[in-house]
Amino acid sequence: MHLFPQVPEESLVTTALVELPEADELAETLLDLAVPHEDINELLALRAPLAADPGLRRLLEKGVRELVQDMGKTDGGGELPRLPEDSGAMGRLFPVYVFVAALPYVRAYHRERSVSDGVSRRTLADLGRQMAVHRRRVGTGGLLIPGWLGLHFRGELYQLGRLQFQRSRLGGRTGEAVRAAGLPLGPEDFALDVHVPDFLGPITPEACDRSLALATGFFARHFPEERYQVATCHSWLLDPQLAGYLPKDSNIVRFQERFRIAYEKKDAADGDPVAFVFGDPELPLDVLAGRTRLERAIGDHLRAGGHWYCGHGWFEL
Hints:
By secondary structure, the protein is α+β, with helices and mostly antiparallel strands. Helices cover 46% and strands 10% of the residues. It is built from twelve helices and six strands. It has helices at 23-32, 37-52, 54-68, 88-112, 117-124, 126-138, 146-153, 172-180, 205-222, 251-256, 271-278, 293-303, and strands spanning 157-160, 163-169, 190-195, 230-235, 260-263, 311-316. It has a six-stranded mixed β-sheet. Helix 11 packs antiparallel against helix 12 (293-303). The chain is globular. The two termini are 30 Å apart.
């Protein structure tokens, strides 16, 4: 039986079910979500205009409905509503209000699943991390990919130590690779998708081991009906070319060694490492400074005419 608020689509458009915290409480909520301090005043200033605009209120309610109607599903959710590009600060920050208004629902779902307050808080604090990513790249408050945070606010993704784990299912090619390796699994079977968040230090083997140990116990305890036997990852961090530039004992190479290659896809993804390492995927090659071995590898490889690719891997838990 679900204990989080059951919200029929037709009833969610009532203001009784979708409310923004008052100004003082909103500030505390934003701090709990790790929203950067330099963004809080702007969010507080825009709260009153949003609350007073019937059109924005309806859009806010529509956004919350898109999140909570599929709470807990591994493939749920739709596109969050967006304001026109010329909407200024309200347009940039509107998705933040949607996530704040959806907080009671995701927190209730976490309680239903007996997820600890600590795991819940650290998971949802990715909102602040993504705002920091936006400010690093654009120079203002906002969210580059609001839909990414829908995974957190629907109960699909959890921060457990250094890594994030998404309740997911094996795709076609990865599922066939797992099956070919002799496991009794295939496409559409459960899998944990591993993500490596920014601003959280190096991915040392010890940190990854701890995260994996936490994940094994966490999902067995809180989602016992979903058996997770494999973990997957789809990331530029799994591009095997990196091993040609980095020491064998580097954290990235050690991370790669955990995975078996599921398949290769030769669509260039040069912007991915540039964005994660330098902060902006559009930076010209001549400004990709080489302060670290990884930075030099990314820049030198591209300047030599090479490309970086997204790697696709898996391993048995």
